[in-house]
Write a structure and sequence with these properties.
- The chain is mainly alpha-helical.
- The chain has a domain of 105 residues: Receptor-associated Protein (Up-down Bundle), CATH 1.20.81.
- Helices cover 82% and strands 0% of the residues.
- Helix 10 runs antiparallel to helix 11.
Length: 310
């Protein structure tokens, strides 16, 4: 690249940087509620010198500098990603205690790391053989977007793995509850015994349900909350069946045994369906790899004999 073109490229990049800076400064205007917030804030109950700081990291000054940029990044990720209500439900299904804002902040951090990785790759490509600046910019942006989507995909994977573990634990927990109820204990006593003697994801959910019942919530409503927190139809039927049995006084042990049997049958059907799909997938290497080699070994001697005969 000659001198005039290089100067034009540097000037264009500088102008683009100035436009971006001015655009961000104008986008971060102080809103009306931000102006009124210092006057409407609740007064402190004690001296500010005696209280702790609001910093969450060992670098409070850097945290205050990065906070506005982080807020803009969280708003951008919120517009790009899934809705807040859906994300909150997925966090509950994954068993995570973090809030939606904390998860968005983690997505922003992953996006920054992705941009840094894309920038490193772009610099390596430029140092190696060179490339178009537009293509390299798209590569860096693509790395950042993929990193944000990877964090969301990781949450989806955590939800699926947790629900699979709950589905595996459900028949055993239902049988234990049926044994406890058949021994003469009530529904709350059976839940307490199962929570004390078992460990796992479903046991933690039952412990949360039991805590709601101890706090004054009716057991049926606590079971309905358990069904709402999970996305498994089998667990929803289990919670609804127990709630109906408690409300109407039907034999709870029979209901629990039937629920456990239904879950085992559903797991057996899912296993058979997965086996059928794997069987079809195994036909691909057989048809496209093993069968051509077998045909070649069968046909090649005949071709060799015909060639010798001619």
């Amino acid at each position: 690249m000659n001198g005039p073109l290089l100067g034009a490229a540097v000037g264009a990049l500088g102008g683009l940087g100035g436009v971006l800076v001015l655009w961000r400064l104008s986008a971060r205007r102080i809103r009306f509620e931000d102006r009124l917030a210092p006057y409407l804030r609740a007064p402190r109950s004690s001296s500010a010198l005696l209280g702790g700081t609001d910093a969450r990291t060992p670098f409070p000054t850097l945290e205050r500098l990065v906070a506005p940029v982080m807020s803009d990044g969280i708003r951008l990720v919120a517009r790009m990603g899934s809705p807040t209500a859906e994300l909150r439900r997925r966090l509950e299904r994954a068993g995570r205690t973090e809030s939606v804002e904390q998860f968005r902040a983690a997505q922003v951090v992953w996006g920054v790391l992705g941009l840094a990785g894309g920038l490193v790759i772009a610099l390596v490509l430029v140092a190696g053989r060179g490339s178009s600046p537009f293509v390299l910019s798209l590569l860096v942006l693509l790395c950042g977007v993929l990193a944000v989507l990877a964090r969301d995909h990781l949450l989806t994977r955590q939800v699926r793995q947790r629900e699979e573990r709950m589905l595996v634990e459900l028949p055993t927990v239902a049988e234990l509850l049926a044994l406890s109820v058949g021994a003469g204990e009530g529904a709350v006593g059976a839940l307490e015994r199962v929570v004390r003697t078992t460990h796992g994801v479903l046991a933690d959910e039952l412990a949360r349900t039991l805590a709601d019942a101890r706090a004054g919530t009716p057991l049926t409503q606590a079971l309905e909350r358990l069904a709402d927190r999970t996305g498994l139809p089998a667990l929803t039927r289990f919670a609804e069946g127990v709630a109906v049995a408690v409300e109407r006084g039907t034999p709870l042990a029979d209901v629990l045994r039937a629920q456990a049997q239904d879950v085992r049958e559903a797991g057996r059907r899912a296993l058979m369906e997965a086996g059928g799909r794997k069987e079809v997938a195994m036909m691909v290497p057989v048809v496209f790899l093993i069968l051509p080699v077998t045909v070649a070994f069968a046909v090649f001697p005949s071709l060799a004999v015909l060639r010798l005969g001619t």
